[in-house]
């Protein structure tokens, strides 16, 4: 699951951000896992350089969450938009269906 999320989410977020044409204005990116009645767990993103470098904005993702039903990406910007929020539901449901709970436990350092 860690590999699936590390591969798919950055690509989706990068695509979204490139459409906004705001990458140089971004202050912070965070991702919430919404697991129903469970509290939200944070997944940190680090290493998103300015667009001018030509590199992808997100290089590394720390995954620490149980199977989830929804992922919310919050983007804080230095623009009149303020914060942008969008949901990646289909991606996560597709990724999680391939794994069993017992297989994932060693991947979760928070449990």
TrEMBL record:
It comes from Paramoeba aestuarina. This is SMP-LTD domain-containing protein.
């Amino acid at each position: 699951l860690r590999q699936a999320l590390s591969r798919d989410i950055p690509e989706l977020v990068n695509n979204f951000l490139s459409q906004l044409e705001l990458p140089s204005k971004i202050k912070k990116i965070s991702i919430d896992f919404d697991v129903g009645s469970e509290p939200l767990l944070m997944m940190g993103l680090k290493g998103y350089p300015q667009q001018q470098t030509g590199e992808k904005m997100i290089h590394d993702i720390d995954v620490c969450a149980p199977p989830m039903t929804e992922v919310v990406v919050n983007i804080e910007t230095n623009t009149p938009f303020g914060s942008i929020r969008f949901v990646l539901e289909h991606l996560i449901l597709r990724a999680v269906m391939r794994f069993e709970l017992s297989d994932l436990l060693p991947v979760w350092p928070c449990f």
